[in-house]
């Protein structure tokens, strides 16, 4: 493995290492040209400031490539039982699955779900 790649992978935490620190939105698609993936990316691009304020990290699994975490794609697919088609999963800071969809999440659904979480409510006080 080239040194720069090893350093980049080491700098990015695994999903497990983010537990209790970050909420995670896993966005999985078979290919970069998947229409649902493109739509979810468009929604998230407009919602970026809100995502940051809610301690949300986006982890994309596109084919065998993972962005946002250093886990291997195969390991994440097994752990979260990801099908070969588009899937989005919202993981809470406690590591539990909060939402799962075969369609892109609207920003309002992500916002409402996260804002209702006990750790989010505690952080707003």
TrEMBL record:
Keywords: Signal. It comes from Sphingomonas faeni. Residues 16-121 form the DUF4174 domain. It holds the Pfam family DUF4174. This is Uncharacterized protein DUF4174.
């Amino acid at each position: 493995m080239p040194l720069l790649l090893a350093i980049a992978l080491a700098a990015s935490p695994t999903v497990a290492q983010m537990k209790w620190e970050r909420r995670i939105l896993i966005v999985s698609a078979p290919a970069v040209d998947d229409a649902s993936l493109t739509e979810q990316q468009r929604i998230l691009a407009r919602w970026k400031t809100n995502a940051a304020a809610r301690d949300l990290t986006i982890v994309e699994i596109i084919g065998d490539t993972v962005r946002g975490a250093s886990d291997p794609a195969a390991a994440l697919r097994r752990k979260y039982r990801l099908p070969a088609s588009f899937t989005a999963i919202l993981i809470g800071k406690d590591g539990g699955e909060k939402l799962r969809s075969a369609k892109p999440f609207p920003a309002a659904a992500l916002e409402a779900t996260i804002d209702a979480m006990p750790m989010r409510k505690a952080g707003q006080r």
